[in-house]
């Protein structure tokens, strides 16, 4: 588009291409909101949803991933293993609240999966296994949460 065709206080309508006033909110030619397109992008950019998708400023998803990964890698290390996993996950989650959510989410998911899976095959064993898993994962999560709070606070 040739720049010299429009003056300082004019712009091209992003919808129909008509020359309109720069401070116009709605194009008088096609009626499309001129301000809509850039402001919508900025609004999306500002939401935490966008941030979590792109990993800017931490996300619960990243925190969960790191906690699961480090919990598996450091399973042989009692107390300190989940503490490190929680700390790193909490930092990746980007905050104390996100860190706690990231620490509890996998535990709840694992306990539900174990209860449901074994519950379908053998209801009584499933219930016992579910409860045992809940306790084991719960203890692990408690340490994870402590690590996540420290990690989240220093994120
Ligand atoms: Zn227009």
Written overview of the protein:
The chain has 2 domains: 3-46; 58-154, no CATH class. A hairpin with a 6-residue loop joins strand 1 and strand 2 (19-21). It has helices spanning 36-46, 48-54, 60-73, 80-93, 96-121, 123-154; strands at residues 10-12, 19-21. Helix 3 runs antiparallel to helix 4, helix 3 (60-73) crosses helix 5 (96-121) and helix 4 (80-93) packs across helix 6. Helix content is 67%, strand content 4%. It is built from 6 helices and 2 strands. The relative contact order is 0.12. By secondary structure, it is mainly alpha-helical. The chain has a two-stranded antiparallel sheet. The structure holds zinc ion. Residues 13, 15-16, 18, 27, 29-30, 32 line the site of zinc ion.
In total, the number of domains comes to 2
The chain-level structural class is mainly alpha
Q: Helix coverage percent of residues?
A: 55-70%
List bound small molecules: zinc ion
Widest sheet: strand ordering: 1-2
- Report the major sheet: 2 strands, antiparallel
Average pLDDT value? 80
Distance between the termini: 46 Å
Strand coverage percent: under 5%
Please count the beta strands (DSSP E, at least 2 residues each).
2
Count the DSSP helices. Answer: 6
SSE string: EEHHHHHH
Unreliable runs:
50-56
What's the shape? Answer: elongated
- State the oligomer: single chain
- Radius of gyration equals 26 Å
